[in-house]
Structure formats: C-alpha cells, structure tokens
C-alpha cells in the first residue's frame, strides 16, 4: 500500500464515495471504491509474494544475470528427506498448538466477557501478556526459568529430587507455543463475544441450562466465525513459527520449516534464495486450501449477525462461588505457566550477569545490562523507532485496515474473493522471507527506492504482515453489524459513504480501539520482518535482538526484551483505558 | 588518563579550527605524501557506511576514535554475516551500493565477494605493518586475530583436569561419556557460517577432527548457532563444555562470569579474522579507504583490542596482540590465512561431503 492509495482511499471515504447511479445501488454499492482499495492491496501483497514465486523457479538470485528458469530448486527441496521431516514436525507442531490454544483461548474469552468473573479488569490486561514478547525472547525466558539449569527446575530438583519436564522436547515446545498463542485466540473470540447480546444466553439459563451448556450450545455457535478465524490463523502461525523452535528445538535437532530455511543458507555457503522461495511457496500452497475451507464454512455470514437494531444490553452470567474458584484457578495456572515463568526468566536475566547451577543470583545482580541502551546510539534509536512504529504506525495501520475492511464489507463481488485469499498469504510466509522480499521490492522498484532507508518501508512491511490479524479483527466486528441498520440508513436516503461514516463506524468504534491495541502489540513484538529491511537509523528492537542473537549478546538481548515488555505493558494499559471509555 | 586524552583531543580540535581549512593534515609516517588529499576528499564525503557482523559494543571505541580524528560520521549497520553479504550483493545488482566497507567475520563470504568482483582494490599504506597472511591482493584485510577455543564449567571440570591438547580432549570425551552425555556443545556447521568455518578449517589443518566429531557424537553433542548462547548454557551448568567457540569473546567472559573457564589447544589453536573490504561502487570511497587505513593503524588496532578484539599487529600494546595472544594460548596459534583456500569449501560438492561425514560422525 502506498501513500497514493491512502490518499485515494481517504478521498473516496471522506467525500462519501462518488455517488453511484441509483439503479445499480443494490449489489454493487461503492463498487469503484472497493475495486480500487482491493486492487491496491493486491498489488502491495502480490509484489513481494509474486517475487518469491518467481524466485522459486530460478536457479540463482533473481537479480543475477546468470539466473535461468529452472525447476532445480523444487527438485532439490522435494527430494530432500530433511525437508519432509521438517514438514512433518511442523504439521505436528501447528496442529498441537491449535489444539491447545483454541479451546483455552475460547474458554478464556467466554469467562472474561460473558460471566461475572472477578478481577476482570486486571485479568483482561494480564491474559494478553504472552503476546507482548516475541517468541524468541519468550523461549529464552523459559530456558532461564524451567530449562535444565533454570531456577524453577533447580528448586524442583532440590525439593523433589527430579524435574518432571523436558523443555527441549517436541511436546515441551508445542505446549509452550500453544500456551503462548492463547491470547491470539482470546482477542479474536472476545471481540466477537463482547458484542453479543445476552438475551439468548439468559433465555437458556432461565430454562435451566448450566453454564457449561449455555457456553456450548448458545455462545459457541454464535462466535464460531471468530473461532474459525482464530484456528486458521494459529495454524498458519504454527507453520511460520521461528523463535521457539530456533531457541528450544534447534540444539537438539528438532527441525521445522522455518529453521530448515535458515539451515539452507549455510548448507550452500551463500544465501540460496531459490530454495527459501520454494519453502515459502509450499507454505502458500498450505494456506490456500485453508482459506478455501474457511470461506465455505462462513459462506452465510448473515447467520452470525447478532448486533441488531434491537437493544443489545449484556448481562453477565453468574458463576457462583465454586465456578469462580475453578475459573480463577484455571486462569491462574495458565498465567503462571505462560506469563510468570517466561517473564520471570527474562526479568531475572535482565538484571544479572550470570545464572545457573551453583550461582547465587544476588551476587550477580547488576544494572550494567541497561547501560548500553543509553550509550549505544543504535539501541536507543531502536527503542524510539519501535515506539513510533507501533503507536503511530499501529494507528495508521488500523485506519488502513478499516478502509480495506469496508471495501470487503457486504461485498458480494469477485473482488471479495480476491480479498479473502490475499489477506492470509503474507501471514503464511515466514517473516524473514517477507522482509527479504520487501527489501527487494524497495530496492528494485524505482520510485520506491527513496523510501527504503526510512521507517515507511518497515511500516509497509509490518502493515502487510499484520494484515490478517488486523483485518480479520475488524471484519469480525463489522460482520456483527446487522444489515437492517445499514439498510434503514440507505432507505432514508443516505449514501453508502454516509452510512459507513454515521452508522457502521460508530458502532464498531470499540473494536477499533481494541484493534489498535492488538496491532500495536503485533508491531512491537515483530522481529523477523525487519531483519533485512532495517538499517542504521531505522533499527527496531525485535530485529536488533535477532542480529544480536547471531553473536549471542544475551545481556543486551535480555535488557531489550525487558524494555519491550515494559513498553508494551504501558501501551496496552493506555489503550485498554481508551477502549474501555469508548465502550462504556 | 581519559580526561587528559579528551583534553588533548579538544585542544587538537581547537587548533584545527583555529588554523582553518588551510591547516595541513598530519600524514602518518610511512604514508604517501598525497595522503592529505585523500583525507580532504574523505572529509568532503562526510560519512562512511559499514555493513558488518560485529556487535557495536566491540567496535564503538574504534569508530569513536575515527570520528574524533577525522570528523567523519560512521553509519554502522550490524546485519549479521549473511545479512551483510545479502545486502551488498542485492544493492550491487540494483546499482545502489549502500556500503563503503563490508566488515565481516564470515571469511569465506568475504572471499566470495572479492572473487565475484564486488571488492575494490586499494593498497593500504598500513599493509607493511600486517602479517603476510592478513592481506589478499590489496582487496581484503584482516583486522583482528581471534582464537578458536573451548569454554567449560569450572564447577564440573577443574582447570587442572581440563585436557590440554586435541588428542587429550578426544580421550577425555571418550572416557567420560556418562558424565558428559547431552552436556557438550559445539557450533552447528549446518546453521552457522562461523561454525562451518571453524570445523572445516580443522578438517584441513588437523588430522584428528573426525575422531573429535565421533567422540562428540558418542556423548550426544548439542549444537548451537552462536557463541553467546553456548556461553549462557555453560555458565548455567546446562552444558559442561562448549567446543570451537570464539575464544576472543571467551577471554572477556571469563573475567566476569563465575564458573567459566577457557581453554586453548596447546598443540593447535586456530584463529579467524574479521575481514574488511572496500566495495566496488562505494558511495563514499575515499572515506571508506580512510576507515580501512584507520582500522589497520596502530591507533585503530589499539581501540579494537581495547574492545576485546585482539590485534593483528605485533606492535599494539593495548589488550592482546597477535604475539601476546599466541603466548596466551600456548604458543600454537594458527591464523586462518586470507587466501583463495577459503573458497575450497564454497564448492557444493565439498560442502555436501563435509555435511555427510559430519552428520554420520555425530550420529544425527
């Protein structure tokens, strides 16, 4: 997406869309706007994706004069046993992750939005915390707390004589990844649940259904779209996860597709873009059927419209003392495992110079890890840039997502099919590859080259990488606006632009604040996308950590991770406050 | 000391300012007479861009000294070895070379850059002060000499107990399999270019590397992609020792890490270098030349050595230099020469053979 398209989109949205001729109003409302927005988005997504596909059919870097068209990259990858092993491990990993994250995330969303669970305000912030941390640092936090020499493991050994878990095994990695992705599911599902009117649940409750039955038979079917979105997305996330397998799986030979890509580079000595591209194409091919099934499942989105013209007062289900205890215990345990353990680990690491067996943490307490933040310009710039990119860039991205969301809203045309497919593509690709492709786009497309050394290049890449999250989140909210509201506005003579501006957008406004918070977090924790794009002056914390990891400057990495946690926590608290105000 | 140096520098600056543009730059001894013109040209270019894999923490002192001396800003891009290489060749293809200097520890990738014509020829006046192996055809310059060594947890193995030669190490691994099982770490040559260089250099330079690899396989070696992450596991006790890591880092680490010992083979210790080259099509070529000269100069080398990167010059007295380092590691330092031999293992066939034997030996 370029500044042009922003302007074009803004112009068309602001002026209420060039008024369409009255006779074709019914189905192709704002058709031109939709086609322009979706077309520009398609270009922004397909430029890097197309480049990757093209690269996969070459036998050298696409910019090399010696590169020729060839299937050699495919034949290499597809006959490499290591690839198939990695693909299998990745599948097990992704499915396992979804199996853990989706039920837990859904349950959490139900408890926090539909019941009178206690400490709700605090919990709403706490349950998002695992998302704050880029998985690379999350994994690292776990090694400090529950790794073989972690402080929890050592305590366990001294009390019970043994440690009942192995962090460095596939089940261990799946469990950690699954638990850390619970907030992704929670955010989607809770956004959908928050807007559900409670009359149906109340009716079920008064007819004698238990809380369990209500949630299963009434709430669950109504939030099915959100659950399916969340499951599909998490499956994709599972396929492109990099940090956790890298830190926890790598030393023991557990290989997934993304770490396989990483390995391909060294196998050949020089980066083998064509092989990376083939793996990326494989990931795209996995994505397409997923989108196809999702579309089939959600074909009739009218079924899920619940936010109608009738009063939508929500009253919360009563859990009772026993229910409260059970619910809070489950949440507490999950929070302990997925928040206290890793953040505890990172916090400890940020303030000590050494840890482990036979080492007293008190003796090695230090603030020296943070000294560098001030004295090294690239680090302090990285902090400022990350803040800018996530707060300002996040808001800009939400605005763009809204424009795109409206283009897809009640869109029955072909452009909507295009939209559904292109949205998930960038998310299916490893961030490292997307970042590299964008680097090339900004390098080789003449009018874009001046933007390359600026934060705008990073913003565009981030915006595309965050597209599936942001857009689905907005769409999930938009879908709930009952058509009769829009129809009545249209009947009374409002243009489609005016309907969107005065009816749709005000209704979804709480969702926008929530989306901003989410996107802010996504941009804050993003690490892989910026690795190839950032340069001196455009450093971002996440990618700095990746480059630092290459030499292993753990002191600095831990300090950066700690700062990013603090920053996100502050940002989120603020956003929630804003969001809460709008909501009330 | 610091204060006086700063005062001195300030005075120097004041003097330079007072004298104005006509003030002749002091040309160091051994430099050509027209060097002052290079300095002037470099100054008018204003800045110099570096693509590197070296953490800024280690380079800061040298970069600051350069900027202070010439008033030229250094734009320092820490991109990692593959990142630096990738960006350089991509930008060259787009005719937008952004780097003046690529300064990387991936010696083989640097050699590939030169072989593929991405390096500019520039004969540094400092060449005479460097060992012969440290310069390749006036294109690539070795700026450091960093031993490859072993770190170990002193809580698990005492310094006296630790093997001193390669042969002893192999024997030690074989004799203590139960104690060491799953607790020995090394670089993963499949994921780390640095690890690949260390291991393949051993294959060429020693006759018992594959015995070592088999011994590592027998204790279920765990493989990592950075020295820093291995340090973390050895300090914490998760691993007992870590083999073929970057010893210059280790020498720094042992000063303030508890439980950490560092060992070098008394019979054989390889050393790698961070190589600097001037790019073809550099946007600030004169400033680039100036920085290369400065990195190799006594002053620049001292600043690097102070940052923990031992000097290739034997006349540097700050930190370690190539001679004192040789003494420190037991007198058998064998630096990897900057030569076309580095390209040997860039041939796919050679790589495949190595990986096949490596995986067979470590049993993965």
Task: Kindly describe this structure.
The complex is a heterodimer of chains A (584) and B (364). Chain A is mostly helical. Chain A has helices at 3-14, 31-56, 72-78, 81-114, 120-126, 129-132, 135-146, 151-160, 170-180, 182-194, 199-206, 211-222, 224-240, 243-249, 257-268, 273-297, 320-350, 368-375, 377-408, 414-428, 431-444, 455-465, 467-478, 483-491, 496-525, 530-533, 541-551, 554-583. The longest helix of chain A has 34 residues, at 81-114. Chain A is globular, with a radius of gyration of 24 Å. The relative contact order of chain A is 0.13. Chain B is 46% helix and 16% strand. Chain B contains 15 helices and 13 strands. Chain B has helices spanning 2-19, 35-45, 56-70, 80-93, 107-115, 166-175, 177-180, 193-205, 209-218, 227-236, 247-256, 285-296, 298-306, 322-328, 348-362, and strands spanning 47-52, 73-78, 101-104, 135-136, 140-142, 146-153, 184-187, 222-224, 241-246, 260-263, 269-272, 275-278, 333-335. In chain B, the strands form 2 sheets. In chain B, strands 6, 7, 8, 9, 10, 11 and 13 form a 7-stranded mixed β-sheet that branches. Chain B has a 6-stranded mixed β-sheet with strand order 2-1-3-12-5-4, with helices on both faces. Chain B starts with a helix and ends with a helix. At the A-B interface, α15, α21 and α27 of A face α3, β2, α4, α5 and β8 of B.
Low-confidence regions of chain B: 1-6, 11-24
C-alpha termini separation of chain B: 55 Å
Which two chains touch over the largest interface?
Answer: A-B, 59 and 66 residues
Mean pLDDT of chain A, to the nearest integer, reads: 81
The low-confidence parts of chain A are 1-27, 308-312, 580-584
Fold blueprint:
The complex is a heterodimer of chains A (584) and B (364).
Chain A: H1 3-14, H2 31-56, H3 72-78, H4 81-114, H5 120-126, H6 129-132, H7 135-146, H8 151-160, H9 170-180, H10 182-194, H11 199-206, H12 211-222, H13 224-240, H14 243-249, H15 257-268, H16 273-297, H17 320-350, H18 368-375, H19 377-408, H20 414-428, H21 431-444, H22 455-465, H23 467-478, H24 483-491, H25 496-525, H26 530-533, H27 541-551, H28 554-583
Chain B: H1 2-19, H2 35-45, E1 47-52, H3 56-70, E2 73-78, H4 80-93, E3 101-104, H5 107-115, E4 135-136, E5 140-142, E6 146-153, H6 166-175, H7 177-180, E7 184-187, H8 193-205, H9 209-218, E8 222-224, H10 227-236, E9 241-246, H11 247-256, E10 260-263, E11 269-272, E12 275-278, H12 285-296, H13 298-306, H14 322-328, E13 333-335, H15 348-362
Parallel strand pairs in B: 1-2, 1-3, 7-8, 7-9, 11-13
Antiparallel strand pairs in B: 3-12, 4-5, 5-12, 6-9, 6-10, 6-11
Helix pairs in contact in B: 2-12, 3-13, 6-9, 9-15, 12-13
């Amino acid at each position: 997406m370029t500044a042009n398209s922003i302007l074009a989109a803004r112009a068309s949205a602001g002026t209420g869309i060039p008024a369409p001729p009255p006779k074709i109003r019914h189905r192709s409302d704002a058709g031109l706007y939709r086609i322009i927005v979706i077309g520009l988005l398609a270009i922004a997504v397909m430029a890097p994706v197309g480049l990757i596909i093209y690269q996969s059919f070459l036998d050298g870097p696409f910019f090399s004069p010696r590169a020729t068209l060839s299937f050699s990259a495919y034949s290499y990858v597809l006959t490499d046993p290591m690839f198939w092993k990695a693909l299998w491990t990745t599948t097990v990993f992704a499915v396992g992750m979804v199996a853990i994250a989706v039920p837990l995330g859904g349950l959490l969303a139900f408890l926090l939005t539909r019941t009178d669970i206690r400490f709700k305000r605090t919990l709403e912030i706490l349950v998002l915390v695992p998302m704050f941390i880029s998985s690379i640092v999350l994994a690292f936090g776990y090694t400090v707390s529950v790794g073989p020499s972690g402080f929890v493991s050592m305590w366990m050994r001294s009390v019970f004589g043994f440690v009942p878990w192995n962090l460095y095994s596939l089940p261990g990695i799946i469990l950690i990844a699954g638990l850390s992705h619970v907030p992704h599911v929670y955010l989607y599902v809770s956004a959908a649940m928050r807007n559900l009117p409670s009359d149906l649940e109340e009716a079920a409750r008064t007819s004698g259904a238990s809380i369990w039955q209500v949630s299963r038979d009434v709430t669950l079917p109504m939030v099915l779209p959100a659950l399916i979105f969340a499951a599909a997305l998490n499956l994709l996330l599972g396929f492109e996860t990099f940090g956790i397998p890298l830190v926890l799986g790598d030393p023991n030979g557990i290989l997934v597709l993304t770490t396989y890509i990483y390995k391909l580079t060294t196998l050949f000595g020089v980066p083998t873009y064509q092989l990376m591209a083939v793996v990326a194409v494989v990931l795209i091919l996995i994505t397409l059927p997923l989108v196809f099934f999702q579309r089939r499942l959600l074909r009739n989105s009218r079924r899920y419209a619940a936010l109608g013209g009738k009063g939508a007062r929500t009253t919360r289900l009563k859990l009772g003392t026993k229910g409260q205890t059970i619910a809070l215990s489950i949440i507490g345990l999950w929070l302990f495992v997925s928040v206290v353990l890793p953040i505890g680990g990172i916090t400890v690491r940020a303030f000590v110079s050494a840890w482990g067996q036979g080492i007293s943490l008190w003796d090695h307490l230090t603030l020296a890890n943070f000294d560098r933040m001030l004295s090294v310009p690239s680090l302090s710039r990285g902090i400022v840039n990350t803040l800018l990119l996530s707060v300002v860039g996040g808001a800009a991205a939400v605005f763009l997502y809204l424009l795109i969301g409206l283009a897809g809203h009640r869109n029955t045309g072909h452009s909507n099919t295009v939209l559904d497919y292109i949205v998930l593509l960038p998310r299916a690709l490893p961030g490292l590859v997307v970042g590299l492709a964008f680097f090339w786009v900004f390098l080789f497309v003449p009018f874009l080259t001046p933007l390359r050394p600026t934060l705008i290049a990073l913003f565009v890449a981030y915006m595309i990488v965050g597209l599936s999250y942001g857009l689905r989140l907005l769409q999930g909210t938009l879908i709930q606006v009952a058509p009769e509201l829009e129809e009545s506005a249209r009947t009374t003579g409002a243009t489609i632009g005016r309907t969107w501006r005065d009816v749709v957008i005000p209704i979804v406004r709480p969702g926008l604040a929530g989306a901003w918070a989410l996107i802010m977090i996504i941009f804050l924790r993003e690490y892989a996308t910026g690795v190839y794009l950032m340069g001196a002056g455009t450093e971002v914390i996440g990618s700095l950590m990746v480059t630092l990891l290459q030499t292993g400057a753990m002191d600095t990495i831990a300090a950066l991770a700690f700062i990013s946690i603090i920053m996100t926590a502050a940002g989120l608290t603020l956003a929630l406050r804003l969001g809460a105000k709008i909501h009330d | 000391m610091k204060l006086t140096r700063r005062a001195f520098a300030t005075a120097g600056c004041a003097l330079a300012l007072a004298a104005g543009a006509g003030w002749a730059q002091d040309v160091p001894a051994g430099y050509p007479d027209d060097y002052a013109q290079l300095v002037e040209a470099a100054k008018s270019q204003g800045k110099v861009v570096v693509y590197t894999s070296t953490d800024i923490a280690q380079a800061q002192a040298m970069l600051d000294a350069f900027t202070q001396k010439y008033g030229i800003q250094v734009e320092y891009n820490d991109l990692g070895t593959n990142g630096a290489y990738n960006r350089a060749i991509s930008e060259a293809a787009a005719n937008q070379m952004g780097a003046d200097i690529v300064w990387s520890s991936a010696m083989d990738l640097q050699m590939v850059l030169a072989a593929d014509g991405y390096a500019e020829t520039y004969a540094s006046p400092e060449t005479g002060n460097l060992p012969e192996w440290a310069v390749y055809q006036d294109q690539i310059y070795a700026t450091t000499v960093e031993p490859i060594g072993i770190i170990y947890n002193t809580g698990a193995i005492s310094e006296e107990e630790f093997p001193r030669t390669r042969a002893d190490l192999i024997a030690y691994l074989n004799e203590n399999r139960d104690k060491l099982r799953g607790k020995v770490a090394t670089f993963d040559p499949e994921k780390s270019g640095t690890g690949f260089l260390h291991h393949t250099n051993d294959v060429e330079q020693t006759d018992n590397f594959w015995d070592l690899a088999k011994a590592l396989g027998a204790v279920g070696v765990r493989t990592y992609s950075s020295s820093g992450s291995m340090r973390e596991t050895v300090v914490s006790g998760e691993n007992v020792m870590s083999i073929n890591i970057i010893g210059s880092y280790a020498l720094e680490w042992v000063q303030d890490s508890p439980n950490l010992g560092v060992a070098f083979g008394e019979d054989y210790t390889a050393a790698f270098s961070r190589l600097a080259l001037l790019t073809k099509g550099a946007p600030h070529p004169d400033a680039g030349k100036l920085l290369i000269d400065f990195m190799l100069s006594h002053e620049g080398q001292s600043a690097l050595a102070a940052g923990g990167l031992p000097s290739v010059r034997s006349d540097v007295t700050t930190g370690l230099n190539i001679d004192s380092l040789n003494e420190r590691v037991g007198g058998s330092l064998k630096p990897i020469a900057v030569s076309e031999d580095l390209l040997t293992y860039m041939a796919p066939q050679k790589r495949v053979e190595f990986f096949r034997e490596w995986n067979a030996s470590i049993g993965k």
